[in-house]
Design goal:
By secondary structure, the chain is mainly β. Helices cover 7% and strands 55% of the residues. The relative contact order is 0.14.
Length: 356
């Protein structure tokens, strides 16, 4: 008997959800641990006395997590399942991406699927996040991907999160290369300050070419992002394309944020673009290169200076096996607010990513 078959029922028993676990057609424990060591530096004010840190840090190439999922075949082409996933910080042994995360912050939902598509209810990744990671060579790398850092990262302008709670989504089946989805997040705020968030996405893939876009109109958010106040709304759209030319897979993205009803530093609009490539150099190794730039512009009444923020990343990944990958990376982070002198940050790291 495999270790997974022994541990999975034990994990469910510990969580107090043994009823029905034995009826699953499949049950799986899985996850990824990502950890790196290096010298880390973001762009910083010229008056900053301590801008660089040499450290061991987690989640540069992918945010570490563990999870469990199950699927049941209901017959007649209908299936049901669940997903529970929790972020973690392997460098300090803590849960969540930060202390503000709920425990099952990555995913916590149930789903039904048939030939007509898939319906998912609960906490889940946003359509915009999925679109953004799909059209850049560094995927969901919060530590290294210009596309992710300039949108969902600590220096990005997305005011929701990479995941939505209280959400219902529907994904179409693959229709000759076309897929689409719609997502609704309910604000569930008794004061009515937070409203309903809507999102749409569509993609088309034909051979080596793929194009996809996503858009959302957000009126609500949960931790670690701040709640919306009454009258605040953010629209966010992203379009991406990729082409696998054989010698390299090429990527490009363009996105726009529009903030309305916010005050102070949040009264900004943002445009951004990214370019990138994944170049296989050996059977097991690839060079990843990406550049992204966001352009922030204060709207009437805003106090944030117009700012250009650019990020360049060069990385090499080497697969030791299907589950274990080594990587080395360099990242340049440059921020130029009007009238404020910033210095460029340079980050160097080596890391390992292990899936189980």
């Amino acid at each position: 008997m495999s270790l997974q078959k022994i541990l999975a029922p034990a994990a469910f028993a510990a969580l107090g959800i043994t009823s029905g676990a034995h009826a699953q057609s499949s049950l799986q424990l899985y996850g990824v641990i990502d950890i790196a060591a290096g010298s880390f530096q973001n762009s910083y004010l010229s008056t900053d006395d301590n801008p660089r840190a040499t450290k061991v840090d987690g989640n540069a190439m992918i945010t570490s997590y563990f999870g469990m999922r199950g699927t049941e075949d209901l017959g007649g082409g209908l299936k049901a399942g669940f997903v529970l996933e929790s972020f973690l910080r392997p460098d300090v042994g803590a849960s969540g991406r930060s202390g503000a995360d709920v425990f099952w912050g990555r995913n916590a939902h149930v789903w039904l699927q048939s030939d007509l598509g898939k319906l998912t209810v609960g906490r889940q990744g946003t359509l915009l996040f999925t679109n953004t990671l799909s059209y850049n060579p560094l995927g969901s790398a919060f530590g290294l991907s210009p596309a992710i850092r300039l949108t969902f990262g600590a220096f990005g302008n997305d005011k929701t999160d990479s995941g939505f709670s209280n959400t219902i989504s529907y994904n179409t089946p693959n229709l000759g290369g076309f897929t689409g989805a719609v997502q609704v997040q309910f604000g569930e705020d008794a004061t009515k300050a937070e409203g309903t968030t809507y999102a749409l996405s569509a993609a088309y893939t034909a051979g080596p070419f793929s194009i996809g876009g996503a858009w959302q109109s957000a009126k609500s958010a949960e931790a670690p992002k701040a709640n919306f106040n009454e009258g605040e709304k953010q629209t966010f759209g992203m379009l991406g394309v990729s082409y696998d030319a054989g010698f390299a897979k090429l990527f490009a993205q363009y996105g726009e944020f529009g903030n309305r009803g916010f005050s102070g530093a949040s009264r900004i609009d943002t445009k951004l673009y990214t370019l990138g490539a994944s170049v296989p150099v050996t059977k097991s190794g690839s060079v990843l290169v990406a550049y992204g730039e966001s352009q922030e512009e204060a709207v009437e009444g805003g106090v944030t200076p117009d700012t250009d923020h650019s990020i360049f990343t060069l990385a090499y990944t080497h697969s030791l096996s299907k589950r274990t990958t080594l990587y080395a990376a360099y990242m340049m982070d440059k921020e130029d607010p009007d009238g404020v002198k910033y210095k460029t940050g340079h980050t160097y790291m080596v890391g390992v990513r292990h899936a189980f």
